[in-house]
Design brief:
This protein is α/β, with parallel strands linked by helices. The protein has 2 domains: 193 residues, 2-enoyl-CoA Hydratase, Chain A, domain 1, CATH 3.90.226; 56 residues, Lyase 2-enoyl-coa Hydratase, Chain  A, domain 2 (Orthogonal Bundle), CATH 1.10.12. It is 52% helix and 12% strand. It has 11 helices and 8 strands. The strands form 2 sheets. The chain has a 5-stranded parallel beta sheet, sandwiched between helices. The protein has a 3-stranded mixed beta sheet with strand order 4-6-7. β1, α1 and β2 form a beta-alpha-beta unit. α1 runs parallel beside α3, α5 crosses α6 and α9 runs antiparallel to α10. The longest helix has 17 residues. The radius of gyration is 20 Å and the shape is globular. The two termini are 17 Å apart. 32% of the residues are buried.
Length: 256
């Protein structure tokens, strides 16, 4: 599935409406039977920018609500974005971000929860919040998870801007391309790799990886052993083993 952030007049800044629309898609992918047919989600921005961060108009609207006596207007706005990025992080599908132009604030956060991030070499990354007198409240924890505390501290506390090549050295992204053609080629290669992996095995593996550090190791390994036993006995496991022995692609990769 391909999803485009499509507010080019604002460099695809993340409005509350956009957040809610993404949540609708994510909820469908998580909970609807049809969502089980989707193996990868590609998130990209329109007209050469990924996402320039939060929408200033929504901030102004929340300020007006606060002035009218609603003390939780800013909290609700900010936390709704956090709910969206948390949902994106735990999607069972493989989440791919294609990062061009502005990758700021909330856009940076989405990059940090993607399973595979592919960046243009001249993309511009950064957390500009502290320079605006606010904080990257819902984003910073995911940045720390992505690149580690030391690097995250510098980026968040200095407002450092950097390009796609530096994002690769930091571990924010996995691939860098220096032309639109190369970017599309790398995306096609990643999608080809995903097609060669068994759909259910990928989903279970992603959940296993996400649970590291969030539950006791012995408990996690016990559950992983049970998942492994189930996978071996499953239709996927049997087909994968048979395909290996017969030196052919498994059924889920037959369209390669």
């Amino acid at each position: 599935m391909h999803i485009t952030l499509n507010r080019p007049e604002a460099r695809n800044a993340m409005s509350l409406a956009m957040v809610n629309e993404l949540m609708d898609v994510f909820d469908w992918l998580e909970n609807d039977a049809a969502g089980a047919e989707v193996r990868a989600l590609v998130l990209r921005g329109a007209d050469g920018h990924f996402c320039a961060g939060g929408d200033i108009k929504d901030m102004a609207g929340a300020r007006q609500q606060a002035a009218e006596g609603d003390p939780e207007a800013f909290l609700r706005l900010n936390r709704r974005f956090g709910e969206m990025i948390s949902t994106a992080n735990r999607l069972p599908q493989v989440l791919i971000t294609v990062l061009e132009g502005a990758v700021m604030g909330g856009g940076f956060g989405l990059a940090c929860v993607s399973d595979v991030a592919i960046a243009a070499g001249d993309a511009k990354f950064g957390l500009p919040e502290t320079g605006l007198g606010v904080i990257p409240a819902q984003i910073a924890p995911f940045v720390v998870q992505r690149i580690g505390l030391t690097r995250a501290r510098r980026i968040a506390l200095t407002g450092q801007r950097f390009d796609g090549h530096h994002a690769l050295t930091l571990g924010v992204v996995h691939e860098v391309a220096d032309s639109p053609t190369e970017l599309d080629k790398k995306l096609a290669e990643v999608l080809g790799e995903i097609r060669r992996c068994a759909p259910n095995a990928s989903r279970v593996t992603k959940q296993l990886v996400l649970d590291v550090g969030h539950m006791p190791m012995d408990e996690l390994l016990d559950r992983a052993a049970a998942d492994f036993a189930e996978a071996v006995a499953s239709e996927e496991g049997q087909e994968g083993t048979l395909a290996f022995v017969q030196k052919r692609p498994p059924k889920w990769a037959a369209d390669e």
